[in-house]
Amino acid sequence: MGSTEEEIKLPLIDLSGYINPQKPGDKERVIAEIKDACTNFGFFQLKGHGVPLSLQKGLLKSIDTLFALPDEEKMALSYLKNPSRRGYEKSGMSLREGDALPDSKEAYYIGREDPVTEHYGFYGPNVWPHQIPDDQFRDPVWEYYQATYHLGELIWEILLLALGHPLTIMEQFAKRPMVQMKMIRYPPLAATLPGQFGVGAHNDFGGVTVLLQEPGKHGLEVWIEDKQAWLPVQALEDVYVINCGDMIMNWSGKRFKSAKHRVINKADNEARLSCATFFHGDVNATNPLNPDDPDRSTVGQLLIKRFKSQFSLPKDAISKVAPEQLTA
Q1: How many CB atoms lie within 10 A of CB 171?
Q2: Does the keyword Plastid apply (predicted)?
Q3: Which residues partner with 106 through β-bridges?
Q4: pTM: predicted TM-score of the whole model, two decimal places
Q5: What residues does each domain of the chain span?
Q6: First to last CA, the chain
Q7: What is the pLDDT of residues 84-116, one digit of tens each?
Q8: Residue 188 carries which DSSP code?
Q9: What sign has the CA pseudo-torsion 302, 308, 312, 318?
Q10: Cα–Cα distance between 165 and 310 in angstroms, integer?
Q11: Residues whose CB falls within 8 Å of the CB of residue 325, separated by 6 or more in sequence, listed in order
Q12: Regarding the domain delimited by 12-281, which CATH topology (the fold level of the hierarchy) does it fall under?
């Protein structure tokens, strides 16, 4: 199907009215706008978010520095060697069921900095590249992670208010939330195979995604179900893309959408950088929006169900994290 770019655009919402309201009704207006965007699209763009532009630029510079390392040095940091699945993923390692070719992207994963590996790797220590001075990678990356951690938490807060829930509900599922961050480099189009995507079409797994795109390097496309078409989403400076995953869609009783999306780096000779921070919830949290939900799967169990082929956990570990019906 063709593009629907001329017919429709994702909402661009200014969060500053919620963070620092100037007049009565400012916060309520932002809540209503985000509710409408998540109801109709599952995606929106966000400005006035409070993440300094200097942090965004520092993060992108750090990503560029990391991916410029020699292949053998990056592979020494492979997430396959880490029990918490933190570290480097080389191009071609991610292949979704139904895709003809693996993703062309390479990626690097971090999460909460927990000293001990717990819950079969959902909590644990990060892998930091010793080849790069801390002030060129670890420090700016960690500062950025914390900023988008709090932004994801703030979006969750607004979504709860939009559905009429008290903010105390955060205490039920976000005491020690899993917040994962994925730094990504997409190779130039000329370096990919015919028909290969940077990231193939998929829905995000969990809660709130906070996506930074390298300004001017377009490539993200969102599937608009009503139009049966892909909508290109421009990469704008100091503007985030926010979306809901399958978990929050189901937790909300389908009131919020989780939309399919993909990435195609359309530049022949230039790489493209991005970074996604995923705010899910505690590993043992169940649906806080509906205590009567017959599906009592925890966040950890839902993760296992979605990604069990990638986690390579022993059967006894899976049975302890996930109920029997998810391991059959």
Answers
A1: 10
A2: no
A3: 185
A4: 0.92
A5: 12-281
A6: 37
A7: 899 999 987 776 666 668 888 999 999 999 999
A8: P
A9: positive
A10: 35
A11: none
A12: Jelly Rolls (2.60.120)
